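agent: user wants the full assembly modeled, not chains individually. Plan: 1) parse entity lines 2) check alphabet per entity 3) run joint structure prediction 4) return tokens. Steps 1-2 passed, two entities, 238 residues total. Proceeding.
--- entities ---
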Amino acid sequence: MTDGPGPAVRDPGLQPERTRLAWRRTTLSASVAAVLAVKTALHGGLSAAGIIACALCCGLWLGFLRVAHHRIRALAAGGPPPALAPRLATAAVLCAMALALCAAVLVV
Amino acid sequence: MSEFVRNIRLWFAPEQVRDEGGTPDYRFSLANERTFLAWLRTALALIGGGFAVDQFLPDLRWAWRVGLALALLGAGVLCSLRAVNHWVRCERAIRRGEDLPASRFPALLSLVVAVVAVVMVVVVLVGWEG
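--- prediction returned ---
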């Protein structure tokens, strides 16, 4: 563990890789939710409110993508990765909650 | 209640979590992170389900459609809040070398999902023409 980053210190349990793939899966789930959100927002034809909701959902998706990308890069850097910062976890959760809020407004 | 407020403060403050106890084996932290992500995926799936009810059951009466969608969306919000809260609590317990926190949330969530599913089947079969 003192050789520095590289294949020499690779974890035999592939923990960083598994965590990276978990972030990828979560990004995929967020993408599906965002696609459904855009479909709902643009369902009743083009309207100003629909376009605003659509842009908001796309922005939330991009925000989630940014958080995931940040974390994936940290995990892929090699060596024992740093622990997840609570700020990143909270940002990801806030994106999901804001998407749910958009959904509630669109559905009602 | 004050314990909950303290947890919320920890959501935003990495240095405070790091102040607690010793630094654990990074594999424990990563396993905790994957559990957090699994809960977040569950939350996103519930939110997607809320959208899907609204989109793919258009013949349902308005009240039923909105009620089912809001139930799923509410479950999604609760699930994501619980994901980050449980992650912080587990991270702290790992650092302090304590037992992991027990939770009745999984049982609660499965009951809610089961009830929503049964209601959906009944409503779709009985009230299709709205």
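agent: reporting back. The helical segments of chain A are 15-41, 48-76, 86-107. The longest helix of chain A spans residues 48-76.
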